[in-house]
Amino acid sequence: MRTTLASVTALAGLVFAATSFALALPLRIPGVAVFAVASAESGGVIPYLPAVFILGIMLMFLAAVVYELLPDRSQTPPRPPAGFGRRA
Q1: Which of 24, 39, 42, 70 could bond 2 through an S-S bridge, CB–CB 3.0 to 4.6 Å?
Q2: Residue 2: which of 67, 65, 60, 69 has the closest Cα?
Q3: Do residues 15 and 56 lie in contact, with contact meaning Cβ atoms separated by under 8 Å?
Q4: Is the dihedral of CA 53, 55, 58, 63 positive or negative?
Q5: Nearest to residue 46, comparing CAs of 22, 67, 19, 23?
Q6: Do 53 and 17 touch, CB atoms closer than 8 A?
Q7: Residue 22 CB coordination number (10 Å)
Q8: Contact present, 2 and 67 (Cβ < 8 Å)
């Protein structure tokens, strides 16, 4: 369970970071139409794109926190030794 949640968190962070990084690249490919993603007033820059990139990086670091804080289901709690808690 914790491996799945940590993987999903890391993957979401990677998608946010890679997508925002790719959208920020000013690539002009000859012969390919340029689609306007941002408004003309912003100069072709998508607003809050650096914040989305930072959010992605934070999610990738948060994946380690999720992995460490969630308990592992395969680990059972230790059993007390025989005779523990008995009065003689």
Answers
A1: 70
A2: 67
A3: yes
A4: negative
A5: 23
A6: yes
A7: 9
A8: yes
pTM here? Answer: 0.66
Place of tokens 């289901």: 73
pLDDT of residue 9: 94
Walk along the chain (88 residues) and give the pLDDT tens digit of each residue: 888 999 999 999 999 999 888 887 776 667 766 665 555 565 556 778 889 999 999 999 999 999 999 887 776 667 777 767 666 5
